[in-house]
Amino acid sequence: MNIFLTFFLISFQYFFNEPVNILIVFDTKEGNTESFAKKVYEGANLVEGVSVKLKSVENVDLNDIVNSDAIIIGSPVYNANPSPKILDFISEWPFEKQIMKNKIGAVFVTAGGISAGEELAQMSIIQSMMVFGMIIVGGEDWKSAFGASLVTDELKLLSQKKYFNEKAINLGKRVALVTKKMG
């Protein structure tokens, strides 16, 4: 982290002492997306001065959305689309008063195989976030440009498990840092 960003974050905490609120919402079918969501949660919690909520899509209410500074959405991939529950969740976002405008947004997905539509599902969620005026945080480099993704077939390789955990943790941490900086 560069010196300016470090100074900014310390100054923000010192003068305002307000925690940044991050909401991580996920849907899961077989538990893979939930496991990934927990790693994203772990990464966001590494940043001091951040309050993180982790909720399944069924347990999120309007107050959770309104009171968040950032929303990270995780979904399994269904035929190159986010899950129907995630799509329903997004379709319930209010247009009035533009409460989503300038919130930080990020995405992660899980899929059964390589090239199973991960990027298309991520872009579907990102497009919705952009319609609402959210500011998108992508992945850490060109290999995960839209966010983080987990391909469950690859988890069979033990060496890959650490890699996917690091991707999830890094996504949570990046969103927390960007949200604090935008504060």
CATH class: Alpha Beta
Strand content: 15-25%
N-end to C-end Cα span: 17 Å
CATH homologous superfamily grouping: Flavodoxin domain
Main β-sheet, in a few words?
A: 7 strands, mixed
- Helix coverage percent: 40-55%
Radius of gyration: 16 Å
The run of helices and strands is HEHEHEEHEHEEH
The rough form would be described as globular
Quick summary of this structure?
This protein has 183 residues and is of the alpha/beta class. Helices cover 43% and strands 21% of the residues.
Polypeptide structure, described:
This protein is of the alpha/beta class and 183 residues long. The protein has a single domain (18-182), classed as Rossmann fold (3-Layer(aba) Sandwich). The protein contains six helices and seven strands. Strands 1, 2, 3, 4, 5, 6 and 7 form a seven-stranded mixed β-sheet that branches. Strand 5 (104-111), helix 5 and strand 6 form a beta-alpha-beta unit. Helix 2 crosses helix 6 (158-182).
